[in-house]
Amino acid sequence: MEYVLSILLLQFCQNKVSSLEHNRKVMLGYLLCILSLLMCLWLEVKYQQSRMKVVTAYLLAVLGGNSSPSSNDIKNILAAGDI
C-alpha cells in the first residue's frame, strides 16, 4: 500500500512540476510577445521622430527661401543641427 501511495505521490509531483514547467513556458511566451510588441512600438516612435526631423528640415528650407530643397539641402540642415 505504501508503495502505491508513494508512486501516486511521485506522479502527482511530476504532474505539478510539468504543469509548472508548462506554465513557465507559456508565461515566457507571453513575455516575449509583450517585449517584441514594445520593441516594435519603440521602433515606430523612433521612425516617426526621424521622419519628423526630415519634414522639419524640409519646411525650414522652404521657409528659408528654397522652394524645392534637394536631399543634400535637407542633409545639410540636419548636419548643421547635429541631428
Automatic annotation (TrEMBL):
GO cellular component, one term: ribonucleoprotein complex
Highest rank taxon of the organism: Eukaryota
UniProt keyword annotation of Ribosomal protein present: yes
Keywords: Membrane, Ribonucleoprotein, Ribosomal protein, Transmembrane, Transmembrane helix
Ranges that cross the membrane: 29-45
InterPro entries listed in its UniProt record: P1/P2_N_sf (IPR038716)
Family to which this protein belongs: Belongs to the eukaryotic ribosomal protein P1/P2 family.
Subunit-structure text: P1 and P2 exist as dimers at the large ribosomal subunit.
Protein name: Uncharacterized protein
Organism from which the protein derives: Psophocarpus tetragonolobus
